[in-house]
Amino acid sequence: MSIEPRVRPLGGLPAIGLADTAWIVLGVTLLAGFLCGERGVMFEPGPGDLGGLPPLEKAPLFVRVLPDGTLQLGGRPSCLDDLVARARSESGPGREAVIVLQVADDAAYEQVVALLDALRLPERWTGARPPIVSLPTHQQIAEYARAYGSDPFEAAAGPP
Amino acid sequence: MRIEARCAALREPELSVLALASAALLAALLVGASTLSRADRTRVALPAASLCVEAPSGSAIVVVAGDATRAVYRFSDGRRPCREVDGPRGVFFEAARVLAASPDKAFVLRADGRLLYRAVDEVLEALRRAGARRIVLAAQPAPSARLSS
To answer: Which residues pair with B71 in a beta bridge?
Structure first.
């Protein structure tokens, strides 16, 4: 009588059983689950403020997103290319443009994320500094308008 | 010879039972692992983005599901599963409680892309009032998506 191993070595290395494979796959799955977090568009509010409005000295570009997704820059109809061109002209060495978004209540949320995403694409900012994009809440915009006595999104492009 | 024959007869069924048991165990554990690896499994049609960042591990999660007519709000501190809360007001209280324990906690906002922005704005305002500093608007990576540093 001879005693043979249940799993024969292959090429000098011991073959791995199905149960071992299962544990390896499980381990990898768990590890991937812990290591891979949620992905999305980062919203980076400044200290003490959540995407707050920048000071007027920074001459922000006030952009309104209408319910149909179209843009208004300083109260006038605009589009993404215009906005990018304007932001590029506002930026300079060591200085980036600041874009402040006011989104209509009835706009689709996906349009807002698409706009934030489009404004952060590096290809749009070749040779220029990418802008700081601010998305203040409606409450913050109301407080801002009260503080300055006018709606900056209605005024001509630039600070009120 | 007789012993060898009996061993061979016994070995085959033993191996297939082991294989079946392993496969069943693997399937069960994979399902369990995929459920446990995230605190939230709510089905949300996330908006698409091509330039994504990865949220910090253990981020708190705010879910805004539903459609243009009705929104449902859920919250997780990042460790326990999501549970429904009472609108933006409930999000505020939960976020304030989490931030009291860890002020640098990041928040992931998993909002349905079809929602009207009003619902999202109310949640952002609730998080702002609670003192949140880091927020990731969860997005579904577009086909040409890249991971930003």
So the answer is: B66
For tokens 């952060």, name the residue: A120
Q: Which residue in A30, A42, A51 is closest to B37 by CB distance?
A: A30
The answer to whether B137 and A41 have CB atoms below 8 angstroms apart is: yes
Do residues B109 and B59 make contact, with C-beta atoms less than 8 angstroms apart? no
Stated pTM of the model: 0.72
For residue A47, the chain B residue with the least C-alpha distance is: B133
Yes or no: say if A95 and A129 are a contact pair by the CB < 8 Å rule: yes
ipTM entry: 0.72
How far, in Å, CA of B50 to CA of A144, rounded?
Answer: 32
Say which of B19, B50, B120 has its CB closest to residue A18: B19
Spell out which residues of chain B touch residue A21, defining contact as CB-CB under 8 Å.
22
Sort strands B106-111 and B60-66 into parallel, antiparallel or unpaired: parallel
CB < 8 Å to B148, chain A: 42, 120
Task: Check pLDDT > 60 for residue B109.
Answer: yes
Residue that has been written with the tokens 């994504």 in this structure = B52
